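Course assignment 3, question 2. Fill in each field.
Student: A.L.
Task: Predict the tertiary structure for the chain below.
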Amino acid sequence: MPVLFDSSIYIEALRTGGQAPLLMQRWAGESPIWLSSVVLEELYAGAGPAVVPLLEKMERDFGGAKRVLTPSSKDWVRTGRILAQIGQKYGYEQTGKSWLTNDTLIATSAARQGITVISANKRDFDRLAEFCSLQWQTRVIQER
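Answer field:
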């Protein structure tokens, strides 16, 4: 089954460096790795000048391999519906819907394509899994 790393994994890998890329490859195993355009947007938005060349390479490499996952219009609609359900269940003021939007877009597009999401963000993806049939795993990169 293909895998997709959430922004939280890439951010941890960039911060810790070292063996993080090898660890990520081990988590993927033989599965093809995909890159979400939403993840790429999040990474660019928070990147300093030293990181931009790495992100540009990722963009080229995943694009060349045709493994960039972009939410469809149906994913956007499903995201809105899921956010409404979360708001109804947990309270609109408690959901943090503005920052949960990106994770929901990642979840709905990955679920549509049968891609497993790997994230360090257990709380949000646990909540999303209540409303979206997605495969996901929690992983944390720890430098040793």
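Instructor remarks: The chain has one domain: 3-138. The chain has a mean pLDDT of 90.
Grade: pending
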